[in-house]
UniProtKB/TrEMBL annotation:
GO terms for biological process: L-valine catabolic process. One of its GO terms (molecular function) is 3-hydroxyisobutyryl-CoA hydrolase activity. Its EC number is 3.1.2.4. This is 3-hydroxyisobutyryl-CoA hydrolase. It comes from Salinisphaera orenii YIM 95161.
Amino acid sequence: MSDAPILFDEIEAAGGRRIGRVRLNNPRTLNALTFDMLEPLYRQLTAWDSDRTIGCILIESTGERAFSAGSDIVALYRGMTGQGDPDYPARFLALEYRLCHAVHMLATPCLAWGNGLVMGAGMGLFSGASHRVVTAASRLAMPEIKIGLFPDCGATWFFNRLPPRLGLFVALTGITLSPRDALVAGLADRAIDHGAHAEVVEALQRIDDWHQPHAAVDRVLRRFAIDRPAGLGPSRLVEHVETIREATDAATLAGMVGGIRRLADHPDPWLAEAAANLDAGCPVTAHIIYRQLRGGRYLSLKQCVMREFKIALQCCRHPDFAEGVRALLVDKDRTPHWHFESVSEVPADYVDAHFRAPWDGDHPLRDLPDVKP
């Protein structure tokens, strides 16, 4: 197999169709998305989507540990801190957001096989697919609060489609979701035994009626979800739904943060970890997330992505994002020194600045389509 970080091929299928396959192939970095991966992926997906002989698109990964654990944020760090091209963050984020938006916009059925870690930008890529499959090994998370960023790549859109306040809880705590959690929350569509992967691809190849391609792909996945189900454990979200609702039942961010922090002594380590993540996370990020999701409930996908781009560039210009990456991934001391020590200390105008465009003139993503073709 090639050592290129992303691989493309086309698999012959019945009815004169082909399956366009993407394999993320950088297992050493848990398939973190780099700039050199984004551009060819965006170009190939859009080309396949305009090709009537492509019956469906499959996005998967090599290796067993991760679908994709996010972006190459160390490269962003270098650009933010003067160790690299200062224009790199803007170029990288614009292309990353175009890619995640483009996956949502695909008219061609797109199957994302989310085995292993699905985190950060990997979650954005996965969430845009029309058919999202998890396995017993899947673990989903948007843990950006740990590094002073915020859940992006369309997270405003997909977290606001979770039950009331659940998206806020997941985003504020950066908690890891099991495959069962992903199914019940609507963040995945099917759970299938990872060992059946090759059989699923073969079944897709045997589809001979592509007149309703989405339905055809779904019929295959439904059958395997029944005949070869993934061995899933319980859902912590279901088990603790009332506890989460009570903890987040507040009219202000301060009230919600206080409610979640009171879970620190909960006997279930999962809830205690959620509280600890928020307590150690970036106070400014907590404010950004709260405003991002509460203010983005009625935005279109395009509006969500355009707004996230503004916030992300402002995070690159403010100190906490670089500090979080330094502490977690560069120096690895795991002791970030946040600009403010607590949520209560963050001034409103400081948060406001993260929602202002850092450029003059038109929005760089203004040409994104509003609806599927």
